[in-house]
Amino acid sequence: MRLLVTGGAGFIGSHFVKRMLAAGEDVVVLDKFTYAGNPANLPDGIECRRGDIATRGDVDQIGPVDAIVNFAAETHVDRSILGPEDFVHTDVLGTLVLLQAAEELSARFVQVSTDEVYGDVEPGWSSREDDPLRPSSPYSASKAGGDLQVLAAVRTFGINASITRGSNTYGPNQYPEKLLPLFVTNALDGEPLPLYGDGRQVRDWLHVDDHCAAVELVLRQGEAGQVYNIGADEEHENVELTKMIVEHLGADRSLVRSVEDRAGHDRRYSLETAKVRALGWQPRRDWGEGVRATIDWYRDNRDWWEPIKRSGGFREYYDKQYAARLG
Length: 327
Ligand code: NAD
Ligand code: DAU
What we know:
This protein is an alpha/beta fold. The protein has a domain at 2-170 and 206-230: 3-Layer(aba) Sandwich (Rossmann fold). The protein is built from twelve helices and 13 strands. The strands form four sheets. Strands 3-2-1-4-5-6-11 form a seven-stranded parallel sheet, with helices on both faces. The protein is globular, with a radius of gyration of 19 Å. 2'deoxy-thymidine-5'-diphospho-alpha-D-glucose (DAU) is lined by residues 75-78, 114-116, 167-168, 178-179, 182, 194-196, 201, 203, 238, 262, 269.
């Protein structure tokens, strides 16, 4: 299969690219190389074009493909609160442009979406695929907009498209703005770990290998117009993950600082995943082992994250997000 992976230089996309190459597929990457796109994530020799998924000419440079898996997105909730425009551009308009290309090419299409489109869920409930969408942040609202474009394109234009909604994903190569890589690299640098609010928010943690395995299964076996939740049923409070990081690194506990909460902060995500499990998927990575292996990866791969954290772009973002919070 000739497969277009958009956002293939980002965190999950790059793991997916490696997985599909190992499966013998003919992979081409389209990536805008925003701050989150990193050539160091890509395997040597991969066919890769720079371009914006929201620009039809950039998409058309790829030529015919059998399938498109769309990982390209603006992905960080905190950045969407600081400035939502890029999120609407890429996550909504970009998805629409890719759907138009998929229609012309008669290509299979998988939209990689998120559990955040459901908004936060009460204790005792897990979001089903047909639950109403109640996004809380400009990020999740944009992802929900992309999902709705996909469902409309299936119905109106007969596109062979499915949607995956994955939960909080962790593993190597994640840009160090997200909780786990930020806290691990800050701890390694002896810098504070800024825990929002009371730190009792719950996320359902999923290893990147398990996330990619599920996306591959949906690509090959998912039905048009269907949505598939992907979660490992590993619900943990942020304080628990923070404690694991501090203990595994033997860091000073006083580095953990309770800071002003995220605006509109979702309290809990939880997914009902029977549908993807019925296709034959189940998570393989154990939470404790996976988290500790991920912490070890950042400890052992300073050459991957140090250039990012020392860059002007990162420092500028970090100051905007944390300077006032940390005092
Ligand atoms: P990431 O931020 O690490 O990477 C995003 C990639 O998309 C980067 O390589 C970036 O350069 C590229 N990109 C951004 N705008 C683009 C554009 N206009 N055109 C082309 N490329 C563009 O993201 P990630 O964490 O790997 O997430 C990948 C996908 O998975 C996203 O759609 C995200 O919503 C979804 N998702 C992420 C998680 C998570 O926990 N990370 C969980 C569920 C779903
Ligand atoms: O649930 C899937 C989503 O998971 C994806 O769609 C998003 O792309 C991805 O970024 C992630 O979103 P979150 O907002 O849950 O991830 P983040 O790592 O930013 O935050 C995880 C939790 O940690 C959340 O409750 C906020 C908290 N947090 C985060 C940061 C960056 C802190 O307490 N302090 C921080 O500095």
